[in-house]
Amino acid sequence: MSPLLDIRGLDVDFDGRPAVRDVHLTLDRGEVLGLVGESGSGKSATALAVLGLLPGNAVTRGSVRLEGTELLGAGERELTRIRGSRVSMVFQDPLSAFTPVYRIGDQIAEAVRAHRDVGRERARERAVELLDLVGIPEPALRARAFPHEFSGGMRQRAMIAMALADDPDLILADEPTTALDVTIQAQILDVLRTARRETGAALLLVSHDLGVIAGMADRVAVMRDGRVVEQGPAREVFHRPREPYTRQLLAAVPRIDTPRRTARADGEPVLRVRGLTRTFPVLQGSVVRRRTGTVYAADGVDLDIRRGETLALVGESGSGKSTTLFELLELAQPEAGTVELFGQRPGTLTKAETRALRRRVQIVFQDPMASLDPRMPVGDIIAEPLRTQGAGKAVIGRRVPELLTRVGLDPAHADRYPHEFSGGQRQRIGIARALSVEPELLVLDEPVSALDVSVQAEVLDLLRRLKEELGLAYLFVSHDLAVVRNIADRVSVMYLGRTVEAGPVDEVFARPRHPYTQALLSAVPVPDPDRERERQGTRILLQGDPPSPTHRYDGCRFRARCPLYPTLAGDEQKRCAHEVPEFEGDGAACHFPRVREVL
Amino acid sequence: MPLYLAKRLGYYAVLLLAAVCLSYLLASLALDPRAYYEGRQPPLSPSAVDHHLTALGLNDHQPLRERFGHWADRALLHGDLGRTIDGTSVNAEFGRRIGVSLRLLLTGTVVGTVAGVLVGAWTAVRQYRFSDRAVTVASFALLSTPVFLLAILLKTGAIWFNQTTGTDLIQFTGEKSVGADGGFWAVLKDRSVHLLLPTVSVVLFTVAGYSRYQRSTMLDVLGSDYLRTARAKGLGRRAVLLRHGLRTALIPMSTYFSYGFLALFTGATFTETIFGWHGMGEWFVNSIGKNDVNSVVAVNIFAAVVVLLSGFLADLLHAALDPRIRQAS
């Protein structure tokens, strides 16, 4: 039997530059093919080429056959008939993938009507059925919502609903969960499985995340620099990779299930935070602005870091990680709660003392491109904090080459500009800048989340080495729990502005006690097809999205989504509803903590 | 939403009041109606000048505060904007002139706006092709041509056309032929012929302007993810470009449309003068020349009202086009 999709010798050029080279892929009916690779490997271009959706500056050669019909070079009319009908697509960023001015239901109904000769009413009904299928609560009501009224996860569900509109034979999913938080990612992957079950469609899943691929794919193709370097059944590629590149990739992926020797630090405390709170007003009105509400961005954060220790602050978007971090760097009196840095209380210090304290705490930002001034040579970028602290020319002349060498860059490149460096090198420059004034606490705000895994591994190695050599302490903010297990000694988990669990990383990951931590860890996919299939049966799927931070909730704020809560007795539930679970230092902020192993 | 609009209207009322006071003060301080009467030939006696000025409420021997008080009492409470310096009713002049400006500009503005949007969207789709470049060059050439030059070129062209064809098919002076009469269709034809050249000139400028804005907003939308989604679900090219592309690219245009509406009522001074139409633009310039305070103030107030209405219209249009705005307010 001929395959459903047969890609032979596919080449894609963008403005004459090769993006895809000689790609051969086949996909049988009902099969899931995982297409994995780092950024720029050509995986998305391959998927888009199937439906002729590449931008105008792309040129394609080769052959793409759908059950024998050639799609490459097919007329627009022919492609229009196939798109959304026999082959449909799910894109990465659900925020911008819907036209902002039409209702979600209408946009799905439009997809129905594009291929079926049905009336407006019938198409609307079908849209509601589809929304129901992908697990949107109150689908008839939500179909009337506009895209901006949906959360990221809901939009991605709607996107899948749209892809199912005409019962496709093949779904192309291009990084469908990359923009989402890990618990939402678990929900969406589950929806994709449902979608496949309902339609029996084959799935081409494009992702950079080996864990996602391991959990979904029957077969895997690994791409690098536009070429498929290895292709085979998932278990074989993951367990017995033949190509050195695949082995290298698998080795570089940080894994959440691998214990690591962590440092038991007993140095003096560097940072101690108790009950930190930061609220923001919600303002309305154009001429007279008045406060109509409050965002409780951080509402009870506890942190402890000792010298020589890495504390990871983890949580999903909106959990208050960044607020906490910037509140600490403000070096001002917090709204409520206490902050102690090196035994001093910011806000009670003189100007000179604050300045001295600022030197001891430095930050490395997430986006290495946006955080470096594009018009400054990197030597000047690194020297700037030194100048601010009043260092002389001689000191700067000595320190800059020294710092560049320390982070693994060539000191001769000090007069180059940021755009002349790769992403990983730029992050090294950011680290050198932070280190220039010899800080003792380094705040790292998602330092590797913009980087590909192999580069990520190098930067993490560098950070580990620097910590040893310089005796630093790290506050490592991340949403990526696998990276956290790889680098952190201790971990602190936040949910909706509050710390819910903290402790040594191995203890928390192996024996999480807070139901949220359990759900979070359970949602992280592992790059191992066998283990992923095992875990799928026991995965904790949280319902819905985190609630709005514009309320202060009575009792436990995780209650509404807590998998444990419904199983509790009446008076136990009452306790969760009215009493805020207290938490001090290490432990879990839960009234009924029960260890549950999820890895 | 209604509450939001009501609030908006409230702000506008306050702004309008400020505009009224300011324009009266400015016109009274800057213009000198006494000079207009004193310069009359044959000369008027000083008492006659005073008499005229007092009748108009413009006698500068009276304190400005009192003059403004009288004027405001009449204008704001009774809707009577006074008399022009030649003694005719400002209100009557007003009504006539607005009609003239509207008749002159309405067709051109509407045709030009629609065409500008379409041309802009079309050139965006054909970015950097020959047609796009040609339209871009033509638009910038037009936009940098002074109105009077274009109008004179159009006139010259019309004269040449009339001479070569040996007819007087194209008329370009005034609104209608002197003594033209006949049935409805004859009058309509006569007026249309007179309207031809001014309309062409208005259309050309409007298209040149709008097509630039529309091209850039459309280009933003053409690269968007949701257009790719629309294609991926199997919509035809036309539906993708019009229903998802142009529809969204119109949102930022709503502001420009509203202020185009402003020009419609406040007139086009050069176009009116060159083609011999006696509209709002001409009136404004003439009354400044004659030191006619009451007329200048009237035109200013009217402009202020139209500016605020345009802003209001822009808000309404924006809200109508964009659900995100509707819900935010």
TrEMBL record, chain A:
Residues 528-537 have a biased composition (Basic and acidic residues). Belongs to the ABC transporter superfamily. Signal peptide: none annotated. It comes from the Bacteria. Residues 5-250, 271-521 form the ABC transporter domain. Keywords: ATP-binding, Nucleotide-binding, Transport. GO terms for molecular function: ATP binding. InterPro entries: AAA+_ATPase, ABC_transp_ATP-bind, ABC_transporter-like_ATP-bd, ABC_transporter-like_CS, Oligopep_ABC_C, P-loop_NTPase. It holds the Pfam family oligo_HPY. This is ABC transporter ATP-binding protein.
From TrEMBL, chain B:
Its main location: membrane. The chain crosses the membrane at residues 12-31, 104-125, 137-161, 192-210, 256-277, 297-317. It comes from the Bacteria. Keywords: Cell membrane, Membrane, Transmembrane, Transmembrane helix, Transport. Coiled coil: none annotated. It is a multi-pass membrane protein. It is found in: Cell membrane. InterPro entries: MetI-like, MetI-like_sf. Pfam families: BPD_transp_1. PROSITE patterns: ABC_TM1. Gene3D superfamilies: MetI-like. Belongs to the binding-protein-dependent transport system permease family. This is ABC transporter permease. It comes from Streptomyces pyxinicus.
